Amino acid sequence: xxxxxxxxxxxxxxxxxxxxxxxxxxxxxxxxxxxxxSPDPLAQFRAWLEDAVEAGVAEPEAMALSTVALDPAxxxxxxxxxxxxxxxxxxxxxxxxxxxxxxxxxxTPAAALVFYWREVHRSVRVVGEVEKVTEEEAIEYFxxxxxxxxxxxxxxxxxxxxxxxxxxxxxxxxEQDFHGKQVDKxxxxxxxxxxPREVEFWSGKPSRLHxxxxxxxxxxxxxAIDRLAP
Length: 230
Fold this sequence. Notes:
The protein has about 230 residues and is of the alpha+beta class. The protein has helices spanning about 40-55, 100-105, 135-145, 145-155, 165-175; strands spanning about 10, 15-20, 60-70, 75-80, 85, 90-95, 110-115, 120-130, 190-205, 210-215, 225. The strands form 2 sheets. Strands 3, 4, 5, 6, 7, 8, 9, 10 and 11 form a 9-stranded antiparallel beta sheet that branches. Helix 4 packs across helix 5.
């Protein structure tokens, strides 16, 4: 429940939480139709992201990233990461290349993203193939990060099992190694770009009759734009 919203959203008992009926809502940013959107989904996303920022959405760059875990069997794997760039090609985020997400992307180079902007009742869903960003792109972004984050990239063997003080001990050593020096990007750290073949824009409407507009990329690279049933 949001602090500013006094309406209860759950009913809890000893062994169960029941979600109460959701209040109806409408996006304050207007209706969504195939005729109202850009012919390019990445241009449309950039416009919506700017709207979210202007509306004061908290962390509009936060997105759920879903990959495919293959061991012991194919299963979805999801976590929240931060969008760092959206360009004419796709959606870029950065991470450790030895992390679980990177290992899964190496084995199955496809991913899905979801952005949810509660304050404006909008969401964007993305499905596509992935590719690594260039080393030049990764270095440029790494050098823009706060020094603490740069050191943290060296200190953490992401997704591995560690002891209680292992990361702090390693960070202390890394700080000594780079004392008075520029922190170079680790070879095991970089970025992934999700190149979309499907993008869906969702806008909340009363009675769950939401607006949904989907872009599908053809083999020729053109985009078909359709309304989907809510």
